[in-house]
Amino acid sequence: MLVRDRMTENPITVQAADPIKVVWDLVEEHRLRRFPVLEGDKLVGIVTDRDLRNATASSVVLTEKKYHDFLLNTVKVGSIMTPEPRTVSPDEDLLKAAEAILELRVGGLPVVSDGKLVGILTETDLVETLIELLPR
């Protein structure tokens, strides 16, 4: 089985120059935990809900809401993302990709083909695969 068989195609992305409020809103709206970060159409990073919590909670816990809102609208995604994330090819063996996710201790990997983001492979995709393959 290949990554292309189980990946989520056309993932929701954010731009590095977007304010982190964009990610905040996407997490709440779609209940997703990670988003590939682009500059134009080039993958430059990945940002997670944990990155977002770390960027806002530490300095906001004891402050007022207007400061929290200011941070959400001022801090850019590029400043909290993980740059140059490990990627996989859609033609990579799914087992190798799953092993990479486990080894790297990440929740997902962007899928890149010919230099373009084409999907994302997440823990959820892998668990859904496991559920389908295990006998009932």
Could you describe the 3D structure shown?
- The protein is an alpha+beta fold.
- The protein has a single domain, classed as CBS-domain (Roll), CATH 3.10.580.10.
- It has six helices and seven strands; from the N terminus they run αββαββααβαββα.
- It has a four-stranded mixed sheet with strand order 2-3-4-5.
- β2, α2 and β3 form a beta-alpha-beta unit.
- The mean pLDDT is 92.
Number of helices: 6
CATH superfamily: CBS-domain
Helical amount: 40-55%
SSE run: HEEHEEHHEHEEH
Count of beta strands: 7
**Residues in β-strands, percent:** 15-25%
Low-confidence stretches: none
Average predicted local confidence, pLDDT: 92
- Helix- and strand-based class? alpha+beta
Topology:
Elements: H1 3-6, E1 8-9, E2 14-15, H2 20-30, E3 34-39, E4 42-48, H3 49-60, H4 65-74, E5 82-83, H5 94-104, E6 108-113, E7 116-122, H6 123-133
Parallel strand pairs: 2-3
Antiparallel strand pairs: 1-7, 3-4, 4-5, 6-7
Provide the descriptors you would attach to this structure in a database record:
four-stranded mixed sheet, alpha+beta, CBS-domain, single chain, 136 residues, 6 helices
How is this structure best summarized?
By secondary structure, the chain is of the alpha+beta class.
